[in-house]
Amino acid sequence: MVPVMRRNNWLAEVADEPFFRLRHDVDGLFNRVFGSDGGFLNPASAAVPMAMWEEEDAFVIEVDLPGLQEGDVEVTLHNGLLSIKGERKAPEGRKFLFNGRTYGSFERVVKVPNTVNGEQVNAVLVNGVLSLRLPKAAEAKPRKIDLRTGA
C-alpha cells in the first residue's frame, strides 16, 4: 500500500480568496478524517471491532483491543447499557511515514436486553480480545413444559 502524502499549507492567505477557502476546507476535512499525524481516523471516531451473539443461556460479546492491558479498559453496565471505554496511546517520539492504526479514547455502548442478569456479567481480556459473557436471568431462559394427557 502506498502512503498518502499531503502537501504543507504552502498556499498563503494572500492568494485568490475563493481558492484559499476551498483548499482550507478540503485540508480541514482531510485532517478530520485521516488525523493530523497520518493516522486513519481521529480519536473521536476510532472504531473498535466487535462481535455479538446469543447462546441459549447468555449473550456473548467479543471486542478486539490489541495492545491494551486491563488498566486501559473500563467496562460498566448501567440502566441496560453496556459501556466499553478505553484509550490506546500512541508511542512517544515516532514520526510515522504511514500509520493505519488509531490512537486515542474510544467508547462503545451496547443496549442489552432487560433479561440479562447484571450481577453475573463476566469480562476477561486475553491476548487483546475482551470477552464478555452476559448470562440471561433464570426467568428469561427457555423452559420445557411437560404435557399431560387429559382424561
Produce the secondary structure layout.
Layout: H1 17-34, E1 50-54, E2 58-64, E3 73-78, E4 81-88, E5 104-111, E6 122-126, E7 129-135
Antiparallel strand pairs: 1-2, 2-7, 3-4, 4-5, 6-7
Structural summary, described in words:
This protein has one helix at 17-34; strands spanning 50-54, 58-64, 73-78, 81-88, 104-111, 122-126, 129-135. Helices cover 12% and strands 30% of the residues. The chain has 151 residues and is mostly beta strands.
Approximately how much helix is present in the residues?
10-25%
* Amino- and carboxy-terminal Cα gap: 76 Å
DSSP strand (E) fraction? 25-35%
| Quaternary structure state of the chains depicted | single chain
Tally of strands: 7
Strand ordering within the main sheet? 1-2-7-6
Q: Treating each run of at least 4 consecutive H or I residues as one helix, how many helices?
A: 1
Summarize the structure.
The protein is mainly beta and 151 residues long.
Please give a handful of descriptors for the protein shown.
single chain, 151 residues, mainly beta, four-stranded antiparallel β-sheet, three-stranded antiparallel β-sheet, 1 helix, 12% helix
